[in-house]
Amino acid sequence: MAKYVTKDSLAQKLAQDTTLRKKEAIKIIDIIFNEMSDALAEEGLVDITGFGKFVIFDRKARMGINPVTKERMEIPASKLPKFKPSQTLKNKCNRKD
Question: What family name appears in the similarity comment (predicted)?
Answer without folding.
Answer: Belongs to the bacterial histone-like protein family.
